[in-house]
Amino acid sequence: MSTFLDTxxxxxxxDKKTIILPExxxxxxxxxxxxxxxxxxxxxxxxxxxxxVAANSEGLDIxxxxxxxxxxxxxxxxxINLFVELRKSKGLTYEEAKKQALGDYMYYACLMVKAGxxxxxxxxxxxxxxxxxxxxxxxxxxKPGVKLVSAFFVMVVPDCEYGANGTFIFADSxxxxxxxxxxxxxxxxxxxxxxxxxxxxxxxxxxxxxxxKGSAKHADVDKVVEATRICKEAxxxxxxxxxxxxxxxIVPSVGSSKAPDSDVAGKANVLVFPDLDAGNxxxxxxxxxxxxxxxxxxxxxxxxxxxxxxxxxxxxxxVGVVAITCVQAQAQ
Length: 332
Prior knowledge:
With 332 residues, the protein is an alpha/beta fold. The protein has 13 helices and eleven strands. It starts with a helix and ends with a helix.
């Protein structure tokens, strides 16, 4: 395990947060809960009926977790009324709110966070990204001043001299399909903030392209150039540059030859991809071929930390994302 995750877990323990795992229908949830409780990383709430919990937690020690059965919990009525209040402009009725909150535990989990009864949610082991994010955007909404919700992976590459000792953020590699220049600039600024929070070192942001400083001409390149301009204008103190090819962004010798006047080239630790195809392919290539640890997709831009898991995740992956969610919650 990387020192990155050790550090994140140690930080999570210093100011313990309450994280909800709503997927009581999946055994990995309970395996992760057992580890989180044993390592004292977080207080864990699991949402489920006694039957669901019994069926999926056999042989595991989750005695320190708080189990909430939405069908009998004394605050359920309060949560449903809160849901109606939040969505009344959309015409949500009490009956519909009840059906949604009890039928989909992700809605219930978001209502608990909105009510101040938990600090964050980790879900997605057996639900799609849309099913994880829709409830959070309807109930918790975006952070004030943030234009969009995006997702990144923390990549920890073994024996790597690039980035921050092999630690990078790759964004957006989970959510925003084809961001326009304004969105790309917002993703860059959010990702820099996330990097500084999680890696505790200065963010150096490269706006990636197949071109470096005008070496190719194309509308896709223009988009990255414009995004870089917008990002610099809005964040004058941020080290951000583009458009840069990947090697020019992270390899010092290539950076100094292809972009000699750049304070980012050859030093980047936050890699902003031009679209979701590039970001998703990029993180998976590095994960599989460089044997990197990939933590995420971690969500940024929601008013409270709500994180989506990859459906192929292991219980250990869930533990890592719970620890990251705790650190995000500490920064709130």
